[in-house]
Amino acid sequence: MKSSVYGRTKQYGSLRCVLRDFVTWSGLERLSKCIKKICVENMRGMLFSRVLFSALCSVLTFFLSKSELNVTRCGRMSVTLQTTLGDIKIELYCDLCPKTCENFLALCASGYYDNCIFHRNIKDFMVQTGDPTGTGKGGDSIWGGPIEDELNTTLKHDARGVVSMAGNGPNTSRSQFFITYAKHPTLDLKYTVFGRVIDGFDTLDELEKVKVDAKYRPVVEQKIQNVIIHANPIADMATNS
After folding, report:
1. Residue boundaries of the structural domains of the chain
2. Angle, nearest 10°, between helix axes 15-26 and 29-36?
3. 28: left (phi > 0), else alpha (psi -120 to 50), else beta?
4. pTM of the prediction?
5. PPIase cyclophilin-type domain spans which residues (predicted)?
């Protein structure tokens, strides 16, 4: 039985691998030294705990703020969701939704979304993922709590492939997100739009065709296998500074 978001049988890899991923993503050698004080490097195969996840993300956020390497300076960047049905490339609005994108990118870099299933799939509406428990009720932000909405009148659910944070009310999003199958203006200014699909619409087509049960849950599980961060403006700025 899945007891919690972190304390379940899904394994995020050894702490050493997590350390490597964070350092590679950030491009900051100082980050490595700081995280090593938190991690016990010889604890191979240990399940990624909530305490350690929060600690790692806190360290990353600290260095980003101290080094003035904020995602607001990144403008736009992209990631690819490698799913069981193919790849979906997403452009992120880092300039317009800095906190949401900071949270999303840190979760991507830590492997948090790896093996997350698409737990809700409604034809002509949207497909939802980002919950490690697979229940639709789990997931958390890098800060260990909900994120304040970053609503923008210029960002609307006006096309197929809009990427938004999921929540159950104002300022309740954490890690779950959805991708629209069509325009839905009724969602505007209710959910934070933080990106859009720029490649992989064929994969989105295949997702929409997946057979679901009465609760819109895919009969055959489809999942995110891995996330690739294409642009690394944080490392680039650190190199050029």
Report:
1. 75-240
2. 150
3. beta
4. 0.71
5. 82-229
